[in-house]
Specification:
The chain has about 120 residues and is mostly helical. Helix content is about 45%, strand content about 5%. Bound molecules: heme C.
Length: about 120
């Protein structure tokens, strides 16, 4: 049992080192590779620090590097794929005073972006 935990931690660490994200994420059903492209094209990196995204050093919003470790996202939403995607699509529906703008992210793109963020 314990060795299985260590092995999966090792595999996770190894996969985190690779440059190319996986093409499928079970938690979200999204495609982290496409999510990476979507993050670049929506320009999320202008405001956020995100691992593995060129020029994603923005400091306007919080770093997204450890988003998988957070208990809450976007203030008070419990961290789940559904809630993360809801925030990415409509931050101002979650919190009308959110500083993050509505970026017209599609449902499919939000799923892929969440998949990438949980895998970076
Ligand atoms: C104009 C700057 C800006 C852009 C562009 C932007 N964000 Fe944000 N984002 C913010 C700010 C500021 C916050 C902090 C919460 C708030 O709005 O008050 C935030 C919060 C978040 C959070 C919650 C973080 C946490 O710690 O709970 C996530 C996830 C997120 N953004 C993802 C994205 C994604 C994905 C994109 C691209 C589709 C994006 N953001 C684009 C400014 C931005």
């Amino acid at each position: 049992m314990k060795s299985a935990v260590i092995l999966s931690a090792l595999l996770f660490a190894l996969s985190a080192c690779g440059n190319k994200p996986p093409s499928y994420d079970a938690a979200t059903g999204g495609n982290p590779q496409r999510g990476r492209e979507a993050i670049v094209s929506y320009g999320c990196g202008a405001c956020h620090k995100i691992d593995g995204i060129p020029n994603a050093y923005g400091l306007i919003g919080p770093s997204l590097q450890d988003i998988g470790e957070r208990s809450y996202v976007g203030g008070n939403l419990p961290n789940s794929p559904e809630n993360l995607e809801a925030w990415i699509r409509h931050p101002r529906q979650v919190d009308p005073h959110a500083a993050m703008p509505e970026l017209n992210v599609t449902e499919a793109d939000a799923r892929d972006i969440a998949a990438y963020l949980y895998h970076q």
